[in-house]
Each structure stands twice: as structure tokens, then as C-alpha cells.
Amino acid sequence: MAPPQSCSLTDQKSWLSNYMAEWYFWNQLAPRADEAAFPSVDSYFKALLYTGGTAPFPTDRYSYTESTESYNRFFGNGQTLGFGVSVAGLEVTGQPGQPLFVRYVEALSPAAAAGVQRGDELLSANGRPAADLIGSNDFSPLTASSAGQSLALVLRRAGVQRNVNLNAAIFALSPVPLDSVVTTPGGRKLGYVVVKDMVSQVNTPLDAAFARIKAAGVDAVVLDLRYNGGGLVSVGGTVASYVAGSRGAGQTYASLLYNEQRATNNNRFAFSNPAAALGSARVYVLTGPRTCSASEQLINGLRGVGVEVVAIGASSCGKPVGFLPSAQCGTTFSAVNFESVNARGEGRYFTGFAPTCAVAETYSRSLGDSAEPLLATALRYADSGACPSPALNALPPRNMGTRLNATDERQQMLAR
After folding, report:
1. How many Å apart are CA 176 and CA 206, to the nearest integer?
2. What is the pLDDT of residue 389?
3. Whole-angstrom Cα distance, residue 382 to residue 222?
4. pTM for the model
5. Which of 396, 237, 198 minimizes the C-alpha distance to 313?
6. Which of 17, 32, 60 is where one domain is finished?
7. Residue 324 burial by CB count (10 A; 0-12/13-18/19+): exposed, middle or buried?
8. 55 with 148, same domain?
9. Containing domain of residue 200, as a range?
């Protein structure tokens, strides 16, 4: 549709009203808010979101806005602005007495350069104790708003406390940070691939990773999506195609279904058959509450063509809907535009995908370590065809839709 006549507040709100009425997935169920009653575009946008009450759709906890600069940096350039350190905040929600661990460090980030590692215990950030961050459910110190912004961390590793000072920077993402061949206790070889972000920069390292593991003679892969918050449908389809190979080639990976008014925009993504594809009958997917959107779509898409998906970890976030983002006046609006279903018409997994084997994550082992609990469970399942006994308790699923008091909610969600 046509852009706003100008970037005045009045014209932007007028454009937003028309856009949501035409393109918003829940346009028939959403509130009709008075433009004049809201002092900003952002407050008006939030007032237009569906508030729930109609089965089977829950409250819209997915739609958000961010600066177009940030959006293009992430999805276009495969870069992000920040410190590059993420903590296990969701896992200790409401438990301020629990330790707060670093769960992930971006490979090319300031945090990595300073030696911050997975498993470090975070004692404080910019003077705020971990108990305060957890108790307030506010991890905003870990998210930067500008390059050069400082972050003072107090960390503890192996009983030794140290101070680490970081300066935020723009750095390249590492969407496939790790791949290897791992051996089960019974001597079977499996591929192991971490896919962190569904951005277009995944394609080259992904192909190289699958070429290496295929050359090693493996017939199945452990796909680590525990921290994959989603991204592009096309990229998720590419990742799934390396797993399914000829089993899915040409079949529907995902159908995107818009509202009745925009039904002519409905479209279909199909599986391809890359040369390095495994063509596996079964895939082991490591999941958790940050496994969201395009990474859940991958699970659903593979199941739709008969690939057995063994999910190990905790329940995924539950986002079977997506966006066709629209950028106007420096803001990108990611309002839910469509729902996604697989080749069998299955979708609406708003409560997420429950794990086949429920396993609580710990942080003392590196990703890819055969003794790391999620990967260890996958290896034992590959030998026995069943979850190890006794089963480990999974952490309860967390609400990934909690809104944060920050301008870039997506980045803060990644940090915690």
C-alpha cells in the first residue's frame, strides 16, 4: 500500500490504521482505537494489536517495531549492535536467589574478544546484582543502544571473580558457529550443527558444514536450534532441505496464509535438494524456549513430509505466525501478517512443540561437548531409539512474549 503522505505524527498514524485494517492477520478481531488518543506511533501500534479471547488464537505477543536501521543490519547485513553476551535469564525467572549464567557468546563480539565464556556466572552488570536483574526481569544492561556504550561485568569462573569492561560494537553474526562429527556411546557417528540465526548469511557456512559431515559418512544429524529465535522462512527451508534431501524435494515446506482480505498473497515455499543433503529419515533437534518462529517452522515443515523429528530439551516458544515487515519513516513494523502450515496443513502450535525427551540445560559444558546434557541425550537416543532413563526434568516453558521497556525488544530477548 502507499506510504504515509509525510512523516508527521498524524500521517503516520493514519497510514498505520489503514495498514493494520488491510494487512494485519487478526484485522477482524483487533481493537479499533482512536488515533487521536495516542501520543506516539508506537503507543497507537500497540493499541491496535489483537488482545485474545477468540479460539484458537492467543493474545498477540509477537508483533513489534524496531528501527529500520537495526532491522536492515540484522536481516540484510547479518550484523548486530551489542556486546555479544547472552545469559540464562528465562530459566531463572522469578528466582532471584538462583545463579545467573552466561549461556552464549557471539564469536565475533566484544564479549568474545574479552574472554567471556559460556558457563561464566554473572554477578553484576553495570553495578546491578544478578538478583536484581532476575527479580525485575530486566536484563537491559546487556543490550546496547549505540556503538561505544559501556558495560561493566563482574563474572566468576571456577571460583575466581574478575571484572570485565566491554564497549558495544557492530559485529558480524556467526549464524553457523559450530559443526562437527560426534560419536554415540554405541559407536555410531552423527553430524552436529548449530544454527543460531535464520539469516541469508547462513547459506555458505551451512553448505560447508553439511558437506563435511556427509563426507564423514553420517546418515543423521543433531541440529542445535536451542538459541535460534527465527528469521527468514526461505532460510529455514534451506536448513530443512539439507536434512530431508530427496525425501522432501519439491514438496511443500511451508504455506503462508494471510487474512481473508489478502488471501491472494498466500504463497508456498518448497523443499529443495542440495548436493550435500543427508536425506535423513530422522533428525535430532535441540530445543528450548528460545527456539522460535522460523526454527519451529523447520520442525513443522520436516514433520509434514514424514521426517521424524526427535526434539530434545524444553518446549519451544510457540510462534506459528510471521511477518511481512513494512518500513516507514525510519521504523519497521513487524505486525503478524500470516500463519504458517506444513504440507499436511498442520500449524497453530501456539503452545510450542513439547520435547520428545525433556532435558534441563546446564552451562558448564560447551556447545558440541558430547557430555553437554542435550547433546548427550541425543546421542543416547540415537543408540537406543528411546529417551534415556531416568529422564531429566525439563525447565518449564517461559513466556517469550513478555514486553520489555526498551526500543529493540528483539535484541533484549536475544540477550536474556
Report:
1. 6
2. 81
3. 10
4. 0.94
5. 396
6. 60
7. middle
8. no
9. 178-384
Question: What is the distance between the alpha carbons of residues 221 and 224, in angstroms, rounded to a whole number?
Answer: 9
Quote the CA–CA distance of 138 and 290 in Å, as a whole number. Answer: 17
* Sign, Cα dihedral of 203, 117, 294, 358: positive
Last residue of a domain, one of 125, 141, 172: 172
**Where does the pLDDT of residue 410 fall: very low under 50, low under 70, confident under 90, or very high at 90 and above?**
low
Alpha carbon 331 to chain centroid, angstroms? 21
Co-location of 44 and 140 in the same domain = no
Q: Let me know whether 105 and 90 are in one domain.
A: yes
Indicate the number of domains in the chain: 3
Q: Is the pLDDT of residue 407 over 70?
A: no
Any domain includes 408: no
CA 95/CA 130 separation, integer angstroms: 11
Give the strand order in the sheet containing 64-67.
Answer: 64-67, 331-334, 326-328
Q: Give 54's DSSP letter.
A: B
- Report d(CA 63, CA 326) in Å as an integer: 12
Give the CA dihedral 168, 172, 175, 179, nearest 10 degrees. Answer: -100
Query: How is residue 127 written as a grid cell?
Result: 553495578
Euclidean distance between CA atoms 236 and 297, whole angstroms: 7
Residues in the chain, overall count: 416
Place of cell 524456549: 289
304: nearest Cα among 358, 206, 242, 237: 237
Q: Which residues contact 45 (CB under 8 A, 6 or more apart)?
A: 16, 63, 65, 333, 335
Considering the domain architecture, whether residues 265 and 165 belong to the same structural domain is answered as: no
3-state secondary structure of 103: strand
pLDDT-derived band at 412 (thresholds 50, 70, 90) equals: low
Tell me the chain's radius of gyration from C-alpha atoms: 21
Q: What's the pLDDT score for residue 215?
A: 97
Paired with 31 in beta bridges are: none
How is residue 11 written as a grid cell? 500521517
Decide the pairing of beta strands 252-258 and 282-287. Answer: unpaired
Amino acid code (one letter) for 244: A
Sign, CA torsion 351/357/359/363: negative
- CATH number for the domain spanning 280: value is 3.90.226.10
The whole-angstrom separation of Cα 333 and Cα 411 is 15
For residue 231, is it within any domain?
yes
The whole-angstrom separation of Cα 304 and Cα 127 is: 49
